[in-house]
Write a structure and sequence with these properties.
two-stranded antiparallel ribbon, about 230 residues, mainly alpha, about 70% helix, 2 strands
Length: about 230
């Protein structure tokens, strides 16, 4: 069923939705750094290296989460920039996507400072307290919401700007359409891996690199995308 014309909001409404989304993600990604601000400087007899080692969990979690969030925001932003308007489904899927980002700093902070990370530093098995699963599966939830946005857009091409419909149809016919599902699976697997060793989650996360390369759009589509303002890599 096609979306009725009166249900599609365009122009200023779309611009406000995109600006609101960017602002929420920007605030959430900034909050991720707050646990680092609370870390004190070197105590007598210590140096900055001792502080870094003692807070390795917080530092690695912040860096990895920052880059993952940036990647997912970049993909979402490029998809949303193709739209000429949005309907109520896009609006609520986008809200659910943003909720994940707002929620993320809490499990990230618990995961970085919990007993699981202490077990990681000693390289020993442990009985997980579940914070690793919550952290990684929150990322999986965000990835899933972003993928659902793309699925809905594919089912309602009237939401896409007229000069970008051919590009979107070409893109969705390539392996790039599986990238969201691949990232979702990686985050789910990373959460399960923490049930064995906490550090395994980060090694699983490295699968995003080959997945991102293998599932990236073909060169000609990337060139077509990057030729439009606001659709850069």
């Amino acid at each position: 069923m096609r979306v009725a014309q009166w249900e599609i909001r365009t122009g200023r409404s779309l611009e406000r939705l995109l600006n609101f989304s960017d602002a929420v993600v920007a605030v959430a990604i900034t909050i991720l750094a707050l646990p680092l601000v609370d870390i004190g400087g070197p105590k007598p007899g210590q140096n900055v290296l001792d502080v870094l080692v003692a807070n390795l969990g917080h530092i690695i979690t912040f860096i990895s989460t920052f880059f993952v969030v940036a990647i997912m925001w970049g993909i979402h932003n490029r998809v949303m920039n193709l739209l000429n308007g949005f309907d109520s489904t896009i609006f609520w899927l986008n809200i659910c996507w943003l909720i994940g980002f707002v929620f993320l700093p809490w499990p990230a902070s618990m995961w970085a400072g919990g007993d699981d990370m202490a077990a990681w530093e000693t390289n020993t098995p442990f009985t997980t307290d579940g914070t690793g699963v919550l952290y990684w599966w929150t990322l999986a939830y965000i990835s899933a919401m972003g993928s659902l946005v793309a699925v809905h857009i594919s089912r309602h091409p009237e939401l896409i700007a007229s000069d970008r419909k051919a590009f979107w149809q070409s893109l969705r016919s390539t392996r790039a359409r599986y990238r969201g599902a691949a990232f979702f699976a990686i985050f789910i697997l990373a959460g399960l891996a923490t049930l064995v060793y906490s550090w395994l989650g980060y090694w699983v996360l490295l699968l995003m690199l080959p997945a991102g390369i293998l599932l990236r759009p073909p060169r000609e589509l990337r060139t077509a995308r990057d030729s439009d303002a606001g659709l850069g890599e």
